[in-house]
Amino acid sequence: MQESPLIGVYDGPIEKKNSTYYYTNKIGGSQDLIPGISATYYRCALCDGILTHVVQIYCPLAASPYHRTINVFACTNPQCYGKPESWKVLRSQCLESEMKDINKDNQQVKQAPVFATDWCDEADDWGMEAEDSEAEICPHTNLDTAQTVTERQPDTQTAGPVDSIGLEGLCLNGSGDRECAVAPTAVPTFQSFYISVAEETDFVGQNNVEHANKLLKEYQEREGVAVGELESCEGEGRGEKYEKAEPKHGDAVFSNFMKRISLCPEQVLRYSWSGSPLFICERPSNIHQMEPPCAQCGSPRVFEFQLMPALVSLLRSTDLSSELVLEFGTVMVYTCRESCWTSGSNTPVEEFLLVQADPDQKLFK
Q1: What does R_g of the chain's alpha carbons equal in angstroms?
Q2: Buried b (16+ CB within 10 A) or exposed e, 215-238
Q3: Which uninterrupted H or E stretch holds 154?
Q4: InterPro entries, per this entry (predicted)?
Q5: CA dihedral 295, 176, 66, 121 (to 10 degrees)
Q6: Which end of the chain, C or N, has fewer beta carbons within 10 A?
Q7: Which pLDDT belongs to residue 285?
Q8: How many other C-beta atoms can be found within 10 angstroms of the C-beta atom of residue 117?
Q9: pLDDT in tens, 102-150
Q10: Within 13 Å and on the Cβ side, how many CA atoms surround 121?
């Protein structure tokens, strides 16, 4: 079966207070905890700065009983751009039965009916229908000897406040992990936006391709690549000409990247569990050695999703006086093939990511 990735695109600002939950797919804001997961802030392994939340993806796997959310964080220090040590990706899971037990402890808070079958092979959205319901879910936080959780506090955002969990006072030392409980006001935050989803094949044959053709023509004029109009990309004549043409800079990988995303240049995310990533520059020759096995169960990791260059322009600080930005080409996330999880765990599992710089960032400005 031909691989058809799911494409994530901007779908408006998040303006309503406390309107996002662990099953909300979003850009920026603060992470929304799966019930039972403890709130923690993380520090950059390079500069010790506090990592900023970049995206949240609700992605339960087909035939799995677990709710499953992945959060990506990054350091906004320019000196750390492009370095994987300045990023962190965390996977959180919880069984439906565990949520029911947690909700009983929280005075039987109502929950939206979100099921694993709403995702992956059978999915055509990322839980967006559940977001439209009137369910009110309060993430449960566990108290332990390492940290103390305070009351829920909203973020201050120009695009609209988003709920967060505040912590006070204590840092996680001992284990050497770059984790810390800090005052919410000290956490840098990007403006928050919804992500909507469609299959990549949905964009094939669309008539509204002026923006895509503009980008391709600019690239053709600058690099001397015979790209042609988007409508004729699949034709044999133009298609063969494109494949045989060599860009001036010799970067055929980037040329292929541009051609592939031309169907939807505004895509901010590509999702294809156990699929193939789209490299923006030369694929590392030792990519398989770079992907370490799962630290928890030892299983190999598989590609799950990647962040795209168009996301960069949306990552702006909630503080208008701040110059908080983040630069990258693409960020590829690899997760445990077995999606292992210890029942009752309150700590997310850290996964692996690969960061590639964009050789021509100005195309996406």
Answers
A1: 21
A2: bbeebbeebebebbebeebeeeeb
A3: strand 149-154
A4: PDCD2-like_regulator, PDCD2_C
A5: -60
A6: N
A7: 82
A8: 13
A9: 665 554 444 444 443 344 544 444 444 444 443 333 333 332 333 333 3
A10: 7
Answer for the pair 233, 262: CB distance below 8 angstroms, yes or no: yes
DSSP codes of every residue in 24-81? --EESS---PPTTPPP-EEB-TTT-PBPEEEEEEE-PPTT--EEEEEEEEE---GGGT
Q: 113 or 187: which carries more pLDDT confidence?
A: 187
For the chain, domain boundaries: 6-199+271-364, 205-262
- Pick left, alpha or beta for residue 241 (phi over 0 → left; psi -120 to 50 → alpha; otherwise beta): alpha
Digit-coded pLDDT (tens) for 257-308: 999 999 899 999 999 999 999 999 988 888 877 889 999 999 999 999 999 9
Helix (H, G, I), strand (E, B) or coil at 340: coil
**Which of these, 34, 202, 319, lies nearest to 24 by C-alpha position?**
34
Place of tokens 């406390």: 18
Residue 100 — φ and ψ, nearest 5°?
Answer: -65, -40
> pTM for the full model?
0.70
CA angle 285, 330, 23 (to 5 degrees): 120
Asked whether residue 66 carries a pLDDT value surpassing 80, the answer given is: yes
347 DSSP assignment: S
What distance in Å separates the CA atoms of residue 298 and residue 336, rounded to the nearest whole number?
A: 9
Structure tokens at 118: 């709403």
The alpha carbon of residue 358 and the mean position of all alpha carbons in its chain are separated, in whole angstroms, by 17
Mean pLDDT over residues 60-86, rounded?
Answer: 93
DSSP state of 317: B
